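This protein record is not my work; I was only asked to verify it. The record follows directly below this note.
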Amino acid sequence: MLTNPYSAEIKSLKNYYFSIPLVILASYSFYNFANSDTVILLGKEDSVFEWLTALFYFISFLLLVLTFKKNRNIFLLLLSFILFFGAGEEMSWGQRIFGFATPESINKINVQHEFNIHNMIVFDGKYMGGGGKKGWDRFLEMDLLFKIFTIVFGAVLPFLVYHFKFISTLTQKIRVPVPPISVGVFFAISWILLKVSLSNVPQEENKEHYWRVYMAGPEIAEFIGSYIMCIICLYFYNYRNKDIMGKDFKQLLPS
Protein backbone atom coordinates (compact mmCIF):
# COMPACT_ATOMS: atom_id res chain seq x y z
CA MET A 1 0.00 0.00 0.00
CA LEU A 2 1.52 3.30 -1.11
CA THR A 3 1.79 6.08 1.45
CA ASN A 4 1.13 9.67 0.46
CA PRO A 5 4.56 11.37 0.68
CA TYR A 6 3.09 14.48 2.29
CA SER A 7 1.38 12.38 4.96
CA ALA A 8 4.63 10.50 5.50
CA GLU A 9 6.52 13.77 5.97
CA ILE A 10 3.96 15.09 8.40
CA LYS A 11 4.17 11.87 10.41
CA SER A 12 7.98 11.78 10.35
CA LEU A 13 8.48 15.42 11.36
CA LYS A 14 5.67 15.82 13.90
CA ASN A 15 8.19 16.46 16.68
CA TYR A 16 9.42 19.53 14.79
CA TYR A 17 6.18 21.29 13.98
CA PHE A 18 3.78 20.16 16.73
CA SER A 19 4.51 23.25 18.83
CA ILE A 20 4.02 25.74 15.97
CA PRO A 21 0.19 25.58 15.83
CA LEU A 22 0.14 26.03 19.61
CA VAL A 23 2.36 29.12 19.38
CA ILE A 24 0.24 30.55 16.55
CA LEU A 25 -3.04 29.84 18.36
CA ALA A 26 -1.83 31.27 21.66
CA SER A 27 -0.30 34.37 20.05
CA TYR A 28 -3.26 35.36 17.90
CA SER A 29 -5.75 34.47 20.64
CA PHE A 30 -3.87 36.86 22.88
CA TYR A 31 -3.90 39.53 20.21
CA ASN A 32 -7.60 39.16 19.41
CA PHE A 33 -9.06 38.59 22.86
CA ALA A 34 -6.75 40.05 25.51
CA ASN A 35 -7.31 43.47 27.03
CA SER A 36 -6.14 46.09 24.53
CA ASP A 37 -3.86 47.77 27.08
CA THR A 38 -2.16 44.44 27.74
CA VAL A 39 -1.76 43.86 24.00
CA ILE A 40 -0.12 47.27 23.67
CA LEU A 41 2.13 46.64 26.67
CA LEU A 42 3.49 43.29 25.45
CA GLY A 43 3.38 44.04 21.72
CA LYS A 44 5.02 47.45 21.68
CA GLU A 45 8.60 48.21 20.68
CA ASP A 46 11.21 46.90 23.11
CA SER A 47 8.78 44.59 24.91
CA VAL A 48 8.12 40.86 25.29
CA PHE A 49 7.31 39.86 21.70
CA GLU A 50 10.09 41.94 20.19
CA TRP A 51 12.66 40.46 22.56
CA LEU A 52 11.40 36.93 21.88
CA THR A 53 11.79 37.60 18.17
CA ALA A 54 15.41 38.68 18.64
CA LEU A 55 16.06 35.66 20.89
CA PHE A 56 14.76 33.10 18.39
CA TYR A 57 16.64 34.73 15.53
CA PHE A 58 19.82 34.55 17.58
CA ILE A 59 19.22 30.89 18.46
CA SER A 60 18.61 30.22 14.76
CA PHE A 61 21.91 31.93 13.95
CA LEU A 62 23.78 29.73 16.42
CA LEU A 63 22.16 26.54 15.08
CA LEU A 64 23.17 27.40 11.52
CA VAL A 65 26.73 28.29 12.51
CA LEU A 66 27.07 24.90 14.22
CA THR A 67 25.58 23.22 11.17
CA PHE A 68 27.99 25.07 8.88
CA LYS A 69 30.95 23.84 10.92
CA LYS A 70 29.93 20.31 9.94
CA ASN A 71 28.97 20.60 6.27
CA ARG A 72 30.47 23.93 5.11
CA ASN A 73 27.36 24.93 3.18
CA ILE A 74 27.73 28.53 2.03
CA PHE A 75 23.97 29.08 1.82
CA LEU A 76 23.53 28.13 5.47
CA LEU A 77 26.30 30.53 6.40
CA LEU A 78 24.61 33.30 4.40
CA LEU A 79 21.27 32.56 6.06
CA SER A 80 22.94 32.59 9.48
CA PHE A 81 24.26 36.12 8.81
CA ILE A 82 20.79 37.24 7.72
CA LEU A 83 19.29 35.89 10.94
CA PHE A 84 22.01 37.49 13.06
CA PHE A 85 21.27 40.75 11.27
CA GLY A 86 17.56 40.24 12.01
CA ALA A 87 18.25 39.70 15.71
CA GLY A 88 20.39 42.83 15.91
CA GLU A 89 17.93 44.95 13.95
CA GLU A 90 15.03 43.80 16.11
CA MET A 91 16.58 45.40 19.17
CA SER A 92 18.24 48.27 17.26
CA TRP A 93 21.64 46.77 18.02
CA GLY A 94 21.24 47.31 21.74
CA GLN A 95 20.56 51.04 21.47
CA ARG A 96 17.96 51.05 24.27
CA ILE A 97 20.12 48.76 26.41
CA PHE A 98 23.28 50.83 26.19
CA GLY A 99 21.52 54.17 25.77
CA PHE A 100 23.56 55.55 22.88
CA ALA A 101 22.12 58.23 20.61
CA THR A 102 21.22 57.76 16.96
CA PRO A 103 23.82 59.43 14.73
CA GLU A 104 22.35 62.47 12.99
CA SER A 105 23.05 61.03 9.52
CA ILE A 106 20.84 58.05 10.37
CA ASN A 107 18.33 59.94 12.51
CA LYS A 108 17.18 62.17 9.65
CA ILE A 109 16.39 59.24 7.33
CA ASN A 110 15.11 56.75 9.93
CA VAL A 111 11.32 56.77 10.36
CA GLN A 112 11.56 55.75 14.03
CA HIS A 113 14.80 57.72 14.63
CA GLU A 114 16.55 54.56 15.80
CA PHE A 115 19.93 52.99 15.11
CA ASN A 116 18.85 50.37 12.58
CA ILE A 117 18.49 49.83 8.86
CA HIS A 118 15.00 48.36 8.48
CA ASN A 119 13.34 51.59 9.67
CA MET A 120 15.20 53.79 7.21
CA ILE A 121 12.73 55.48 4.91
CA VAL A 122 13.67 53.36 1.90
CA PHE A 123 12.95 50.11 3.81
CA ASP A 124 10.20 51.14 6.24
CA GLY A 125 6.49 50.71 5.54
CA LYS A 126 5.77 54.36 6.35
CA TYR A 127 6.91 57.75 5.13
CA MET A 128 8.90 60.11 7.37
CA GLY A 129 5.83 62.24 7.97
CA GLY A 130 3.64 59.24 8.77
CA GLY A 131 1.19 57.33 6.64
CA GLY A 132 1.66 53.92 5.07
CA LYS A 133 3.38 53.42 1.74
CA LYS A 134 1.42 52.15 -1.25
CA GLY A 135 2.15 50.70 -4.67
CA TRP A 136 5.73 50.66 -5.92
CA ASP A 137 6.85 52.63 -2.88
CA ARG A 138 6.60 49.32 -1.00
CA PHE A 139 9.07 47.60 -3.35
CA LEU A 140 11.91 47.64 -0.80
CA GLU A 141 9.76 47.52 2.33
CA MET A 142 11.65 45.17 4.67
CA ASP A 143 8.56 43.64 6.23
CA LEU A 144 7.08 42.82 2.81
CA LEU A 145 10.38 41.35 1.59
CA PHE A 146 10.57 39.19 4.71
CA LYS A 147 7.06 37.84 4.13
CA ILE A 148 7.86 37.01 0.52
CA PHE A 149 11.15 35.35 1.48
CA THR A 150 9.67 33.16 4.21
CA ILE A 151 6.76 31.94 2.07
CA VAL A 152 8.99 31.27 -0.95
CA PHE A 153 11.70 29.63 1.15
CA GLY A 154 9.39 27.72 3.49
CA ALA A 155 6.63 26.53 1.14
CA VAL A 156 7.22 27.31 -2.54
CA LEU A 157 10.81 26.03 -2.68
CA PRO A 158 10.18 22.57 -1.16
CA PHE A 159 7.07 22.15 -3.31
CA LEU A 160 8.99 22.92 -6.50
CA VAL A 161 11.98 20.78 -5.50
CA TYR A 162 9.79 17.75 -4.86
CA HIS A 163 7.57 18.04 -7.94
CA PHE A 164 9.98 19.30 -10.63
CA LYS A 165 13.01 17.18 -11.46
CA PHE A 166 15.04 19.94 -13.10
CA ILE A 167 14.67 22.18 -10.04
CA SER A 168 15.64 19.31 -7.75
CA THR A 169 18.71 18.62 -9.87
CA LEU A 170 19.72 22.28 -9.69
CA THR A 171 19.22 22.64 -5.92
CA GLN A 172 21.20 19.45 -5.27
CA LYS A 173 23.99 20.64 -7.54
CA ILE A 174 24.41 23.97 -5.76
CA ARG A 175 23.36 22.48 -2.38
CA VAL A 176 20.59 24.91 -1.48
CA PRO A 177 19.09 24.07 1.94
CA VAL A 178 15.45 23.05 1.48
CA PRO A 179 13.18 23.25 4.54
CA PRO A 180 10.36 20.73 5.03
CA ILE A 181 7.09 22.12 3.70
CA SER A 182 5.23 20.71 6.71
CA VAL A 183 7.07 23.34 8.78
CA GLY A 184 7.47 26.14 6.26
CA VAL A 185 3.78 26.30 5.32
CA PHE A 186 3.09 27.80 8.74
CA PHE A 187 4.72 31.04 7.56
CA ALA A 188 1.84 31.50 5.13
CA ILE A 189 -0.75 30.44 7.69
CA SER A 190 0.57 32.98 10.19
CA TRP A 191 0.53 35.87 7.71
CA ILE A 192 -3.03 35.02 6.66
CA LEU A 193 -4.14 35.01 10.30
CA LEU A 194 -2.38 38.33 10.80
CA LYS A 195 -4.37 39.90 7.95
CA VAL A 196 -7.61 38.56 9.42
CA SER A 197 -6.68 39.76 12.91
CA LEU A 198 -5.75 43.25 11.74
CA SER A 199 -9.03 43.60 9.86
CA ASN A 200 -10.87 42.78 13.11
CA VAL A 201 -9.17 45.37 15.32
CA PRO A 202 -12.09 47.42 16.69
CA GLN A 203 -12.28 51.00 15.47
CA GLU A 204 -12.38 53.58 18.26
CA GLU A 205 -12.39 57.31 18.69
CA ASN A 206 -8.95 57.34 20.25
CA LYS A 207 -6.95 56.92 17.03
CA GLU A 208 -3.61 56.75 18.82
CA HIS A 209 -4.80 53.88 21.02
CA TYR A 210 -6.26 52.07 17.99
CA TRP A 211 -3.01 52.45 16.08
CA ARG A 212 -0.93 51.11 18.96
CA VAL A 213 -3.16 48.03 19.18
CA TYR A 214 -2.97 47.61 15.41
CA MET A 215 0.83 47.82 15.32
CA ALA A 216 1.17 45.16 18.01
CA GLY A 217 -0.13 42.64 15.44
CA PRO A 218 2.91 42.73 13.13
CA GLU A 219 5.21 42.50 16.17
CA ILE A 220 3.44 39.31 17.24
CA ALA A 221 3.59 37.94 13.68
CA GLU A 222 7.32 38.64 13.56
CA PHE A 223 7.77 36.62 16.75
CA ILE A 224 5.85 33.70 15.21
CA GLY A 225 7.99 33.95 12.06
CA SER A 226 11.19 33.84 14.12
CA TYR A 227 9.93 30.77 16.00
CA ILE A 228 9.11 28.92 12.78
CA MET A 229 12.54 29.85 11.38
CA CYS A 230 14.16 28.52 14.54
CA ILE A 231 12.39 25.16 14.07
CA ILE A 232 13.64 25.00 10.48
CA CYS A 233 17.20 25.74 11.63
CA LEU A 234 16.85 23.01 14.26
CA TYR A 235 15.88 20.63 11.45
CA PHE A 236 19.03 21.52 9.49
CA TYR A 237 21.13 21.14 12.63
CA ASN A 238 19.74 17.71 13.52
CA TYR A 239 20.32 16.48 9.96
CA ARG A 240 23.78 18.01 9.66
CA ASN A 241 25.41 14.57 9.39
CA LYS A 242 23.19 13.49 6.50
CA ASP A 243 23.22 14.47 2.84
CA ILE A 244 20.07 16.60 2.77
CA MET A 245 21.29 19.79 1.09
CA GLY A 246 19.26 20.52 -2.02
CA LYS A 247 16.71 17.82 -1.22
CA ASP A 248 13.13 18.04 -0.07
CA PHE A 249 12.50 15.89 3.00
CA LYS A 250 10.14 13.60 1.07
CA GLN A 251 13.07 12.63 -1.15
CA LEU A 252 14.78 11.25 1.93
CA LEU A 253 11.92 8.91 2.79
CA PRO A 254 12.14 5.20 1.89
CA SER A 255 10.52 4.44 -1.49
Summary: The two ends are 12 Å apart (CA to CA). DSSP finds twelve helices and no strands in the chain. The chain has a mean pLDDT of 92. The chain has one domain: 5-252.
